[in-house]
Amino acid sequence: MLDSKEVDVKTEPETTTLGQAPFPIKTSRGRKYIGVELSSPIQFRLLTCKKGKIKLSKDRTSGEILNLSEGGVLLLVDRPLPEDVFLLLSLNLNQSVILEGVLGKIKRVEPSEEGDFHVGVEFTSREELEKLASLEQIDHLPVKVASFGGKLREIISNYLRTAELATR
Question: Which option is the CATH number for 37-166: 2.40.50, 1.10.260, 2.40.10, 3.40.50?
Answer without folding.
Answer: 2.40.10
